[in-house]
Design brief:
The protein has 10 helices and 15 strands. It is of the alpha/beta class and 339 residues long. The protein folds into 2 domains: 62 residues, Alpha-Beta Plaits, CATH 3.30.70; 255 residues, Aldolase class I (TIM Barrel), CATH 3.20.20. The structure holds phosphoenolpyruvate and manganese (II) ion.
Length: 339
């Protein structure tokens, strides 16, 4: 349930409504726009006669929120959210590019990739230190040592950093070294991990589950925000369909659908969705054209010898060519491209 206040409602009127809600044991979430203030209500509404709220001064209307996710809901918070990640941000004005290897392999490899992706316009370095691999015999990641290399790469280049976490132990390590944590597709509905990510204090990139609906995905985001962490970014990374020509099917329609339902930033991962370096560039351009706030792209110095996801990794040359080609798309969409 949300209470929409009249334009120019006084502070006193707003306080009277929030006090009434809180006095009845519910939580208040305030969203102050330029014109209108929206008061969101979370909790057990059976304790409150919500219809009485129309009597309060400067209340315009009361709107029921039928979706089970509230804090992630655009009705609660009509303005788009900008999420700060280290010294950069993800939001409506710019196109933020996260790039780097699927897995952190060596210190030298990571530093080299960090320098090259920065030159081409990325502002966030990605690199997996905990790899949730389909096969238990595949490379599982360097764990804390990999996180240390991420921290070194940040110090050397000034890039912000993101790393996937798969356990509470990984979260506890990641908070010491990186600027953002990632919950991967395979853990999107690991509710205990989501709550722990919500308590970590770091911004969270929440990837869409392999078979998750948009509603399930937004509820997963709600778990994180409900722990007091509003800094959630959603990442469309393809879903499982009957099609086998690509690794997954990139659901780009999720971008405008999410845009209509949530205020959270939305980015697209054309690497894991297509599984082939050949399709990364066209889908990256399409993602910018449908108004994504950013991209996550896998880049490797030597894809043929990558320990993970070589076939979808771009070489330095291909990545630089792509970021160049993205600039006119950003211009059309009214987004700045940091380089
Ligand atoms: C990744 O980004 O390294 C990754 C494993 O992605 P996803 O969870 O989307 O498969
Ligand atoms: Mn990967």
């Amino acid at each position: 349930m949300i209470i929409v206040m009249k334009p120019q409602a006084s502070e006193q009127s707003i306080r009277a409504v929030t006090k009434y809600i809180e006095d009845n044991g519910l939580q208040v979430h305030l969203s102050k726009g330029e014109e209108v203030t929206i008061i969101g209500m979370v909790g057990d509404k059976s304790k409150l006669s919500t219809e009485n709220l129309v009597i309060f001064k400067d209340v315009d209307r009361i709107v029921p929120v039928t979706e089970s996710y509230k804090l992630a809901n655009k009705k609660f918070h009509p303005q788009p959210t900008t999420v700060q990640v280290g010294n950069t941000s993800i939001g409506p004005d710019s196109l933020t590019i996260m790039a780097g290897p699927c897995a952190v392999e060596t210190e030298k490899q990571l530093l080299l990739i960090a320098e090259e992706v920065k030159k081409a316009g990325a502002t966030i370095l990605r690199g997996g230190a905990y790899k949730p691999r389909t096969s238990p015999y595949s490379f599982q990641g360097l764990e804390e040592e990999g996180l240390r290399y991420m921290q070194e790469a940040k110090a050397a280049t000034g890039l912000s950093t993101i790393c996937e976490v798969v356990s509470l132990e990984a979260i506890e390590a990641a908070v010491k070294y990186v600027d953002m944590i990632q919950i991967g597709a395979r853990n999107m509905q690991n509710f205990i991990l989501l709550k722990e990510a919500g308590q970590s204090g770091l911004p969270v990139l929440l990837k869409r589950g392999l078979s998750a609906t948009i509603d399930e995905w937004l509820n997963a985001a709600e778990y994180i925000i409900a722990e007091g962490n509003p800094n959630v970014v959603l990442c469309e990374r393809g879903i499982r369909t009957f099609e086998t020509a690509t690794r997954n099917t990139l659901d780009l329609s999720a971008v405008p659908v999410l845009r209509s339902r949530t205020h959270l930033p939305i980015i697209v991962d054309p690497s894991h969705s297509t599984g082939s370096y050949k399709y990364v560039a066209p889908m990256a351009k399409a993602a910018v054209a449908c108004n994504a706030d950013g991209l996550m792209i896998e880049v490797h110095n030597d894809p043929a010898h990558a320990l993970s996801d070589g076939p979808q990794s771009l070489t330095f040359g291909k990545f630089a060519a792509l970021t160049d080609e993205l600039k006119p798309f950003c211009q059309i969409m009214g987004r700045s491209f940091r380089d």
